[in-house]
Write a structure and sequence with these properties.
With 489 residues, the chain is an alpha+beta fold. It folds into three domains: 291 residues, no CATH class; 115 residues, no CATH class; 63 residues, Arc Repressor Mutant, subunit A. It is 40% helix and 20% strand. The protein is built from 15 helices and 16 strands. Strand 6 and strand 7 form a beta hairpin. Helix 9 packs antiparallel against helix 10 and helix 12 crosses helix 15. The relative contact order is 0.10.
């Protein structure tokens, strides 16, 4: 992406609108099943209600409300005892009723916050509102025509809107990743961005650095990956900075992102609330939630990532980074804690290091979640303990870890089966030493003539020939003994 201007002259002011599909079995206002639209035959999970046929009446999905309350409470929001559904009127082919049932003036919750990590420390991002609505259908554009699949129409959708508190692209990405982690912890959203179950819209403006004024903003729609969001926001900040530096004005408009060309594309002028002609949904009563229900849901919330990160730092001595990456995914955190419990004598620091490096590498390469693999926390603890006790080398342990991940088993049996244990037999090591001495007569002669640093080089050659499996102490003893014999000769 070509840099348009020295952006240090200006500072970004960014807010996010996040749309997250909720993991309910049925849709928001009808009994149609929620299906994976990427693999399901189009228009097979639809009915008169979610396609907006005349004379039909919607009914609120209680499970969707419960999931929304879980998120709102996790974000420390104030819950409205009574919230109102409204009709948001606009016409688009993927909206079969000609309006969307959403919430506007009286949302389910507001005034929350989410703590994010930044290079300058923890920062609190204010949550303006959390509300429920229904998703739209999905359009498929072809050269001469477009098709629409209404399987997604009516799926429960949670909208989370922030204040414009983010001052950099890095903060935007940190917020997005932290929020996705919380949604997965709460088990209300799969977090599978490739399937469009979380979509981001960024409201972006810039202003002279140090100013408190709010300048005209643009909205970038439908950003469905962290990479896309980062590229789009970065480009838009540079574009607006360039315009202001030339004395031009910013037009308030809705933008799309052209990923191929790496530019934002104007779609339409930015709508205001009055353009949608909101009015209360006449077919739905006010949504009332009791204090008892709120308290019950609050009590059921799991320990959230930031709290878990702090506990790992205090209880296990993990660094902020290590604790953060372990705590980010609930399945990984539970795996780590169970492995710690399996062997109380094992250092949590060493275990966390293996998980956050080698195990993460295998997970990323395989695209398989930890709880879908054959690796158990108990076998992970045994493997790291074998390395810690010097019974197996780290390179050999990595080979066994990959085997355990794909097919399971016993680390000790795999070590024997693959012949990956540490070689401690002095006779076998002696054979390796003799071969190295034979293969490198010049270096041996240098050592014998008084260049003692050559010893470490020869030691490294023996270890390399053993594939890193030879016991270093035994190698050192045997090599020293063989070289002393040559000195005497």
């Amino acid at each position: 992406m070509m840099s348009l201007v020295d952006v240090s002259t200006y500072e970004p002011v960014i807010g996010l609108e996040v749309h997250a599909e909720l993991l309910t079995r049925s849709k928001m206002f009808c009994g149609c099943g929620v299906v994976d639209v990427t693999i399901t035959e189009p228009n097979t999970s639809v009915c008169e209600i979610c396609t907006g046929m005349p004379g039909t009446l919607p009914v609120i999905n209680r499970r969707a409300v419960e999931f929304a309350l879980r998120v709102a409470l996790a974000l420390d929001c104030k819950i409205s005892p009574t919230s109102i559904f409204a009709r948001k009127n606009y016409f688009y082919p993927d909206l079969p009723k000609g309006y969307q049932i959403s919430q506007y003036e009286t949302p389910l919750a507001n005034d929350g916050c989410l703590l994010i990590d930044t290079p300058r420390g923890i920062k609190s991002i204010t949550i303006r509102r959390v509300h429920l609505e229904e998703d739209t259908g999905k359009l498929f554009h072809h050269t001469t025509h477009s098709l629409v699949d209404y399987n997604r129409s009516g799926v429960p959708l949670l909208e989370i809107v922030t204040e414009p508190d983010m001052a950099s692209v890095e903060e935007v990405k940190s917020f997005a990743t932290h929020l996705r982690s919380i949604l997965r912890y709460l088990e209300v959203n799969s977090g599978d961005m490739e399937k469009g179950v979380i979509r981001f819209e960024a409201n972006v403006s810039v202003r002279p650095r140090g100013s408190d004024a709010l300048y005209t903003r643009t909205e970038i729609k439908n950003l469905n990956s962290f990479r896309t969001m980062t590229r789009a926001v970065t480009y838009e900040v540079e574009r607006q900075s360039a315009l202001l530096s030339r004395g031009d004005s910013i037009q308030q408009e809705t933008l799309g992102w052209d990923d191929a060309d790496g530019v934002t594309i104007a779609q339409r002028s930015k709508e205001e609330a009055h353009d949608y002609r909101y009015f209360p949904e006449p077919d739905l009563p006010p949504l009332k939630v009791s204090h008892a229900w709120i308290d019950e849901i609050r009590a059921s919330l799991p320990e959230l990532p930031h709290h878990k990160q702090s506990r790992y730092m205090d209880a296990f001595g993990l660094s902020g980074y290590a604790a953060g990456v372990i705590a980010a995914e609930r399945s990984i955190a539970e795996f780590f804690e169970t492995a710690c419990e399996a062997d109380p004598d094992l250092s949590p620091l060493k275990l966390a290091n293996w998980i956050s490096t080698d195990l993460f590498s295998i997970i990323n390469e395989s695209s398989i979640e930890i709880d879908q693999s054959q690796l158990t926390p108990q076998t992970m603890a045994v493997l790291v303990s074998l390395v810690d006790r010097g019974e197996i080398s780290a390179p050999s342990a990595k080979i066994i870890l990959a085997e355990l991940f794909s097919r399971g088993g016993d680390p000790l049996l795999l070590m024997e089966e693959l012949d990956l244990g540490i070689i401690q037999d002095a006779g076998k090591i002696g054979e390796l030493v003799d071969q190295i001495i034979q293969d490198h007569p010049d270096q041996v002669q240098e050592y014998l003539s008084g260049k003692s640093p050559i010893f470490q080089w020869l030691l490294g050659q023996v270890m390399r020939s053993a594939g890193g499996r030879a016991d270093p102490f035994t190698v050192q003893q045997v090599l020293s003994k063989h070289l002393e014999t040559l000195l005497k000769d």
